[in-house]
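Hi R.,

Here's the chain you asked about this morning:
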Amino acid sequence: MLDLNEIEILQVALAHEERARAYYDRQAGLHSRTPAGSLFAFLAAEEEGHIRKLSARFGIPASEAKWEHKYLPYLIDLERLARDREAEDAGAGGGDAVRRSLSVAKAAEEHAVEFYGKAAETVEDRDTKDLLAALQEEERIHLARIEEFRKKA
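And here is the predicted structure, written out as C-alpha cells:
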C-alpha cells in the first residue's frame, strides 16, 4: 500500500511518466536512425499517451508532471541511474551506450509496473483502479519490448 491519496497517486504517476518520457526522448535523439532510437521514440510516445490518460482522469493538468520534487520518495531517478551505470561500465573497462540506456529503460518500466500495482491496490475508485491496471499492463508490454530488443542486441 502507498501512503498517498488518489489524487497524489495520479500526480506521482504523472511525474514518473514525464521523467520516463523525457529520458526516452533524449535517448531517441542520441540513437536516432538506429533500431534503438526507434524503440526509444516509441517508448517516449507511449509515455506521452500515459500522461494524457492520467491528466484526463481528474482534470489534473499535465504540467503537474513536472512537480516531481513533491513526490521524490516515490520516483526513480533515471538520470542518476544512467550516470551510475555509466560509471560501473567505465570501471569494468568500457561499455555500450545502447545497452546502458536499455538497462535504465528496463529499470524505469519495472518501477512503473510495481508502482501501478501498489497504486491500484490503494485506490478505491473503480475507474481509477481500471486506469492504473491498464497502465500497469502497458508498462509490462514496454518491458517485454525492451527485453526482446536486449536479447537481439
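One quick note: The first helix runs from residue 6 to 30.

Cheers,
M.
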